[in-house]
Write a structure and sequence with these properties.
By secondary structure, this protein is α/β, with parallel strands linked by helices. Helix content is 42%, strand content 21%. It contains 10 helices and 12 strands. The two termini are 25 Å apart. Bound molecules: calcium ion (CA).
């Protein structure tokens, strides 16, 4: 299931840029252009994480965070202007999960989003975590912590690569068609390129098979893909 990120940002260019990057990474995106709208949408229960600008019309980011924290534990990453050190302190006290100082590198924001989601997912019981562990051979996936490793070494995947690998691991030894994978990874209303699954399989292979000299994902000609036990 896709993770939904709410972007609360009044500067249209930045909001649009963030939206494009997040969608590219496979996130669902909601947007709000002022503090009041941002608070309402964050409380609406549809978002999994909020990227919250500090300088906003109607309610500033700190006020949004303060009101949000009265009844919501949703992860929040704040965007502050350069050198607003006091803002960072205020944000910390207000219960933000992390901060980015503008201007920022998008890769860093994406990394922090993954990290915050990972941290938030980490606080579950051992029993629950075992259920969330998928593996084949030396390849391990911790669904809750959003981590993948091969032979103990961390493998960095994008959101969609992760989702694709997860579906294949959940259905180990079963051949899954491209259509099913497309629906599970991109959503039933996906309207883009139909060969996108092949593209993501190629990305996964470049990060796993090519690096570790293994053959994890099998192509079943004319049907789809499969991860088999003996090929991990
Ligand atoms: Ca702003």
């Amino acid at each position: 299931m896709a993770v939904t990120v709410l972007i609360v940002e009044d500067e249209e260019k930045i909001g649009r840029f963030l939206e494009l990057e997040l969608v590219h990474e496979g996130y669902e995106v909601m947007k709000a252009v002022n503090g009041r709208e941002g608070l309402e949408k964050a409380q609406g229960g549809k978002a999994d994480l909020v990227v919250l600008d500090v300088m906003l019309p109607e309610l500033n980011g700190f006020e949004v965070l303060r009101r949000l924290r009265k009844n919501s534990d949703i992860p929040v990453i704040m965007l502050t202007a350069r050198d607003e050190v006091m803002d960072k302190v205020a944000g910390l006290d207000g219960g933000a999960d992390d901060y980015m100082t503008k201007p920022f590198a998008i890769e860093e924001l994406l990394a922090r989003i993954r990290l915050v989601l990972k941290k938030r997912g980490g606080g579950v019981s051992t029993a629950g975590r075992d259920k969330n562990r998928l593996s084949v051979g030396k390849l391990c996936m911790d669904v809750q912590r959003y981590e993948v490793s091969y032979d103990g070494k961390q493998v960095e995947l994008t959101h969609r690569e992760f989702e694709l690998l997860k579906v294949l691991l959940e259905n180990k030894n079963i051949v899954i068609s491209r259509d099913t994978l497309l629906e599970k990874v991109c959503g039933y209303d996906y309207m883009g390129e139909t060969n996108i699954i092949d593209v993501y399989v190629r990305y996964l292979r470049s990060k796993l098979d090519d690096v570790y000299q293994v053959k994890i994902i099998q192509t079943v000609r004319g049907v789809g893909y499969c991860i088999k036990d003996e090929n991990g």
